[in-house]
Design brief:
Blueprint (H helix, E strand, L loop, with lengths): L13 H18 L3 E9 L4 H8 L6 E6 L4 E14 L4 H14 L1 E4 L10 E6 L15 E13 L2 E10 L5 H16 L15 E5 L3 H16 L5 E12 L5 H11 L4 E6 L4 E7 L2 E6 L2 E12 L4 H13 L1 H20 L5 E2 L3 E4 L3 E11 L6 H8 L7 E2 L1 H11 L10 E6 L4 E5 L3 E5 L2 E11 L4 H19 L1
Parallel strand pairs: 1-4
Antiparallel strand pairs: 1-7, 2-3, 2-10, 3-6, 5-6, 5-18, 6-7, 8-9, 9-17, 9-21, 10-11, 11-20, 12-13, 12-19, 13-16, 14-16, 15-16, 18-19, 20-21
Helix pairs in contact: 2-6, 3-9, 5-11, 6-11
The protein binds the ligand C=C(O[C@H]1C=CC=C(C(=O)O)[C@@H]1O)C(=O)O.
The site of ligand ISC has 18 residues, from β9, β13 and β21.
């Protein structure tokens, strides 16, 4: 077979790959087995959002994740292996699935470059079971993509995963791979396909302001009677546009309007997408170094530098906001300690976003190799930043107060690799997109001293910022 050189052929030894694939197939014949091969190739820079735009299809699982502050973005297209879970134990089942898959992976290429090797993309529901029976996502979706394009600063890495067995044609695989690389590299100077015109839309708040404030007052009574100390109440906004939402335009807007947030999108393979811009990291692990965020306590950004500084000052000095925040620190440190980790609480700081600012305390720990990232996700979710304290009581009350399914809102979403590196964020400030309809979600933490008007205003501020990016 002749393989003509393409721009990236210098980075990929087709001859070696050919031999490896033939040897793998030979083994598959002998053992009547299947073998996953993960091929990592450095390629010229392409925007992963462009890859999502060009390659994602409504009937496949896709995932997008961007962390501008770390210069990272990743697009994962279609699944070569997947698991959907609708029952309890979603985190432990996910861990098992990932471990099982990894036992059957052979790597080809340099796995030391950023984002090389197998990555598993996961999105979870807030609760382990949805009460809305027709909610379009299961309570966990995990997949190993067919195609993954990731950037770290200006370095770009392509990963393709193939399932090799006795019936595949190795020559066809190699030819397809070469075409894929060529087509991808032709996207180098593209930007997402975005039309400029704004669409007309109608809005429908799930709760009117009186209902939300009434829930806050009722929650405050429960807090006063020591039933719980904190509860996070969310609201949803339904939007109907005169035409279908453009996923790429929305994601592009989100990354421009919220450069300090994690931008994400997860599809269900049936045309629905869950997207958003979240400031909250659940866990990130790189070379066994874990970092997590206690993020709770909020104030709007000021319209002038003076007003902004006053708001920030009031926020850091408010005992109510500090109490709301400290509950999250205490919970995270306790839960990490229960896993045998030694959490270090870093100095508190402000997380200033385009529309809002938060009290923020990063917490770090070293993770021994025997603790899988999913164990930590299971241990931390949901923190009091999105549920409350005590957690089980708060979760039960959330189900009573909120008249809509949280679904993927405020739940962990991210990726894990073969080395135990991972990045999971909390899917707040998010929207479920379904054609010309979108449901937007945001919430606010209620503690003793919360003012129903202010909490309602905070939720509206968050929802409006999201709406601006979608329409
Ligand atoms: C639950 C949300 O925000 C949480 C994260 C940061 C600050 C929060 C607050 O101050 O209430 C919330 O705890 C949301 O935006 O939907």
């Amino acid at each position: 077979m002749t393989i003509s050189p393409c721009r990236s052929s210098v980075f990929l030894d087709y001859k070696d790959l050919h031999q490896l694939l033939l040897a793998v197939q030979e083994k598959c014949y002998e053992n009547h087995s299947r073998q996953m091969v993960s091929i990592s190739i450095p390629i010229d820079f392409i925007d992963p959002l462009v890859v999502l735009d060009k390659y994602s299809q409504t009937n496949t699982l896709n995932f997008y994740f961007e962390n501008k502050s770390k210069g990272e973005a990743i697009a994962a297209i279609d699944a070569v292996s997947k698991l959907e879970i609708t029952s309890k134990h979603r985190f432990s089942q996910t861990e098992e699935f990932i471990k099982d898959c990894l036992q059957n992976v052979i790597n080809f290429g340099n796995t030391n470059q950023p984002f090389a090797g197998s990555h598993f993309f996961c999105s979870f529901g807030f609760f382990d079971q949805h009460y809305q029976l027709d909610y379009p996502f299961p309570s966990a979706t995990i997949f190993l993509p067919k195609l993954q394009v990731a950037v770290k600063n200006s370095a770009c890495c392509l990963v393709v995963n193939y399932l090799i067995h006795s019936r595949v044609n190795i020559h066809t695989i190699l030819r397809e791979l070469q075409t894929k690389i060529k087509n991808l590299q032709s996207l180098a100077n593209n930007s997402p396909n975005i039309e400029i015109s704004a669409a007309k839309f109608t809005k429908n708040q799930i709760n009117n302001s009186a209902t939300f404030k009434h829930s806050v007052l009722s929650a405050l009574e429960k807090i006063e009677s020591n039933h719980l100390t904190k509860i996070v109440l969310a609201d949803a906004l339904d939007v109907r546009s005169c035409k279908s939402f453009n996923l790429f335009k929305s994601l592009n807007n989100l990354r421009q309007l919220h450069p300090n947030c994690y931008i994400f999108s997860s599809s269900n393979g049936q045309g629905k997408n869950f997207i958003g811009a979240s400031p909250e990291r659940l866990i990130s692990i790189q070379n066994q170094q874990l970092i997590t965020d206690a993020l709770a306590g909020s104030a709007p950004r000021g319209k002038t530098p003076t007003e902004d500084a006053t708001n920030a000052n009031n926020l850091v000095n408010s005992s109510k906001e500090k109490h709301e925040h400290n509950l999250v620190i205490d919970f995270i440190t306790q839960r990490l300690s229960q896993l045998g980790l030694f959490p270090q609480v870093l100095a508190p700081r402000l997380r200033q976003l385009s529309n809002i600012q938060h009290l923020w305390t990063p917490i770090t720990a070293v993770v021994p190799p025997n603790i899988h990232p999913l164990k930590i996700v299971a241990q931390l979710h949901p923190t009091p930043a999105v549920a409350g304290a005590a957690r089980d009581i708060a979760c039960a009350e959330i189900r009573r107060y909120e008249s809509f399914e949280r679904g993927l809102y405020a739940a962990p979403l991210g990726w894990v690799d073969a080395k135990g590196n991972c990045e999971f964020i909390v899917g707040i400030r998010s929207a479920l997109i379904d054609g010309d309809r979108a449901r937007l979600y945001a919430g606010a933490g209620i503690v003793a001293g919360s003012d129903p008007d202010k909490e309602f205003a905070e939720v509206q501020l968050k929802l409006q910022a999201l709406l601006k990016a979608l329409v």
